[in-house]
Amino acid sequence: MIEGDLLRVEAVSKTFESVRAVNDVSFAVSRGEILGFLGPNGAGKTTTIRMILGIFDPDSGAIRSSLDGGRNHVPKERTGYLPEERGLYSDAKVLDLLVYFGELKGLDRAESRVRAREWLGRFDLLDWAAKRVEKLSKGMQQKVQFVAAILHRPDLVVLDEPFSGLDPVNQNVLREVIAGLKDDGAAILLSSHRMNLVEELCDRIFLIHNGRRVLYGDLDEIKESHGEHAVRIRFTGDGSPLADMTAVRNLRLDEGHATFTLDRSASVDEFVRHLPDSIVIRALSVDRPPLHDIFVQTVEGRAS
Amino acid sequence: MRLGKVIRWEFGQSIRSKQFLIITILIPAILAIGVFAASRAFGSDSSAASDPPPAIIGIFLAIILYLGAFMSGVMTMYGVMKEKQSRVVEMMLSSVSAWELVCGKLIGLGLAGLIQVIVWATLVYVGASQFMPISLASLTLVHWVTYPLYFVLGYLFIGSIFGTIGAAIKDIHSGGAVGFAGMIPYLPMLFTALIVQQPGLLWIRIAGFIPPFVPSIMLLRIGATPLVTEGAEFVPTWEIALSLASLALGTFLMMRFATKVFEVGMLMTGKSASLRELWRWGRRRG
Fold first, then answer.
1. The whole model's pTM is what?
2. Nearest-by-Cβ selection for A105 from B17, B95, B267
3. ipTM exceeds 0.95, yes or no
């Protein structure tokens, strides 16, 4: 096993009743990396996550980690989990609850208390430490639950929709915290439907659909190889030869202005070198397809 | 040890809740009134000869212990349902195993129940001794040894039944047939008068070895036997030993069953389980 591979999911499958929820899924996450774990609703994300965290056992395949001595799961004290379905003990006091979660993950009581106060301070919640959880707003509870997930400095962090329900200011705070965890060497599995955040935060992505892997790899490479580049040109001269270029799709040609997409098979470099001489370029932009489009195209392509 | 932490948390949360105060203080108040009324009724019979014998305390204790196990069981069911409804369970299961969580809940809430029962028993004893010639001195070694064992095992058995129900049903209104499972251990209570009057009947003795019925029947039998049978005859030791062994085995299996149902039931909150599904969940491997 490569030193960096903190988590390795190997050919894992899980069947419920007669439904194959997860089918032969493999991927790895290494330290200091954020893997975007994507997929439409019901694709098998939560089931996969629960197997990684040892809540379910896979029917076949293995979950391996450089943290354990060859056992078939990641040690629970080393993982931190923010589930999509949020929930805390509503009648417990905030600080007590955090201390409890810290203790369950192996911190001693005093250490757990110090860290809980530290994090509450960071999320601007210190005034609420002695309040019952039910008195907090949804966004506050969300932050408390995030703290509960990472209080013990886990090596493997699994975050399911960590930004939902947070205002923009808190989203920024959380983004910084997640980046900080990554810099400290945690391996992070980030599941989200917010493609802009995934694009911003993740190094690599894994797209699961109907329980199977449909995309996996470096985000930049996936963007290079999937979807169509969006091209915009401002020019002077005659733009009509653009329509004859084989790489050009969906051309919209106005006076001095053209927008179109490049055919998947075309290379950007080739295309630019062979632009017609009849136009003088004033501005040119070639944008990689947004992850959102890749997601939709891939999933819809598979569905049909 | 994680189990110890779960126990401490559940215990601490439980004794700090409002329900606990209400049940621990309010119920004894009602009982005290009942005892007072009963003592009046006994008193109106006038003649000193009809006073209850001192050993009736054994029956009192039996009923209190069994009531205590029932209350703790119901608290366990609510605890499990709350865990499920608040969805905290997914985070918990990423920290502890289902077995640790179920055991921790049962033991933690059971300890709180034990405090409750001690409070009740003390209050009832103090109250009742004002009106009746009862005395702790009439309790024998057999009572002191067996009552705690029947209470602890009985609670764990009943608690795991209620915990199973809590994990299997969506909310308190949709228990269906599953909800009735919680009543099974209470069937012998229908025959309380008979058990107290004739604790040596064959079918009562046989029922005393069946795990769900063990605590109620044996507590009453042990309490009643010295009252109705003159002289040395007591519940035979082998019967006590066999019933305890049977209860211990039943409790272990019930806790295992509860854990399995918990594992499946807690993570699918959409619906309540039918009895058949419950059975399938409970036997599920892995």
1. 0.82
2. B95
3. no
